[in-house]
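A further point concerns the way the authors explain their paired sequence and structure data. For illustration, here is how one protein appears when written out as sequence plus structure tokens:
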Amino acid sequence: MYYSFHAQGHPNVTSAHRTTLEVTMDPEISKKADCIIGVASDKSMSDFSEEFKKAIASSHAKIKLILSTRNAKDEINGWGHPDLSLDHPTDMVCRKSDYVCSRTLMIKADKAACDLDEDLINDLANGETLKVEIIVE
């Protein structure tokens, strides 16, 4: 299954967080929001179809997140979980841990914000558009 949407970079994107990365619908962030890589997202998890949510909320769901800007691309792989509610109205968080809450899109991710491609982060810090693709296997 496949889903895509867009968000924006922001001058305060630092991508320094070691365990998570996040895309939010919020238009502004502070420098302290070191896990947020995209703002002003045009979609939230509440926009996912029930079929897509069901696919993610499987203990066997392998999830691939592809992040791309004009000059760079990166891929994050993680897992779904039956306890994922996928209903947060503004935030999508990928976690290296197995912590689950309403903001969690995937757990046991192989990358966090600090692990992302440097050119991707530079583009986002310069306000470039971020394309987010979610593939569920």
About this structure: The radius of gyration is 13 Å. Strands lie at 2-8, 20-24, 36-38, 62-68, 73-79, 91-95, 104-106, 129-136. The chain has a mean pLDDT of 97. The chain has two helices and eight strands.
